[in-house]
Amino acid sequence: MVKLAVVVLNWNGIKFLKQYMPSIVEYTSKNTKIYVIDNASIDDSVSFLKENFPSVHIVLNADNYGFAKGYNEGLKHIQAEYYCLLNSDIEVTPNWDEGVIEFMDKHKDVAVCQPKLLALLQKDEFEYAGAAGGFIDKNGYPFCQGRLFSTMEKDTGQYNDNREIFWATGACMFVRSHIYHSLGGLDDDFFTHMEEIDFCWRVKNQGHKVMYYADSVVYHYGGGTLATGSPKKTYYNFRNNLVMLYKNLPSNRLFSVFCFRFIFDIIAGARFLIDSGINDTLAVIKAYGSFWANYSHNRRKRKQTVQQKHTTMMYKKNIVFQYFILKKTKFTDLNQQDFTN
């Protein structure tokens, strides 16, 4: 069995394959296999890969299954000790994969790990999708070292220490394959957005660690599938966040968190109406409608999920209040004692 399989998910992304596959092939360790799982693309992605990168293995999915199911279906055909789920719009750097695997080999309690994620178009700045590792607050709002809401920090070496985090970015996520499959992989119902946070929460509920490894650096273009400001993206973010919270929160916190989120999501919907028009507001309403319409299905998933009363690296305060009211716009502004351990 190969040690590491680097696995890129593609759907009609030939422009990304042309731009970023060369760095992946050049800088990935020679004993690592590179795969592309293709979600039934109708462009020339597959023929381009066959002609220009014959060393890359191709797995063909029967349909566009989205991010979560796309990986779940494709990874059934890939055997390796570790997977690296890698976005097609990532530029990697020399030795980007070797250090992570050596680190995980030494720390058997680490199930998931991510490198430092910087912005491809602003290379001294952290990238939105994962930055220097992800966290969530007690009410389920995600944020990162190096990125709080839309505020990106410059990389000045302030996050050059490896540390435990709450979630690793799906843009470049290393995971032990047996743990991935034992947990059923990513949640198929998510389709896209927040599936990696849900997965990492389930990993942590099983007693494993999720880590940030600072010595590996990759650059992310970002927004390659759904652009920022897309009502579809708004819908998936709100709906998937509700499902994630319902699946993973302990029973004694479900009611209070959902009441809080309902109020704040109403405020968010009103803000969308003022800032960007009715479509994003309708997306929030649709997200709640979908959650409750599928309540029985979500309840079955909750019963299949382990819930822990205390989850490591969850922020015990409300990040919305800290950011918008107290004006704490950098991760270093937050009191590190407020993260559970």
Key traits:
2 domains, Spore Coat Polysaccharide Biosynthesis Protein SpsA, Chain A, 11 helices, alpha/beta, 341 residues, 21% strand, two-stranded antiparallel sheet
3D architecture notes:
39% of the residues lie in helices and 21% in strands. The protein is built from eleven helices and 14 strands. The strands form three sheets. Strands 1, 2, 3, 4, 5, 6, 7, 12, 13 and 14 form a ten-stranded mixed beta sheet that branches. Helix 7 runs antiparallel to helix 8 and helix 7 runs parallel beside helix 9. The longest helix has 25 residues. The relative contact order is 0.13.
Topology (elements, then pairings):
Blueprint (H helix, E strand, L loop, with lengths): L1 E9 L3 H14 L5 E6 L6 H8 L4 E4 L5 H10 L4 E7 L3 E3 L5 H9 L3 E10 L2 E5 L7 E3 L5 E3 L2 E2 L2 E2 L10 E2 L7 E5 H6 L12 H11 L3 E12 L10 H18 L2 H25 L2 H16 L1 H9 L15 H7 L16
Parallel strand pairs: 1-2, 1-4, 2-3, 6-14
Antiparallel strand pairs: 4-13, 5-14, 6-7, 6-13, 8-9, 10-11, 12-14
Helix pairs in contact: 6-7, 7-8, 7-9, 7-10, 8-9
Précis, in short:
This protein has 341 residues and is of the alpha/beta class. It contains 11 helices and 14 strands. The strands form 3 sheets. Strands 1, 2, 3, 4, 5, 6, 7, 12, 13 and 14 form a 10-stranded mixed sheet that branches.
Secondary structural class: alpha/beta
**Which fold name is given in CATH as the topology of the largest domain?**
Spore Coat Polysaccharide Biosynthesis Protein SpsA, Chain A
What is the count of DSSP helices, taking H or I runs of 4+ residues?
11
The overall pLDDT, averaged over residues, is 96
Fourth-level CATH superfamily of the largest domain: Spore Coat Polysaccharide Biosynthesis Protein SpsA, Chain A
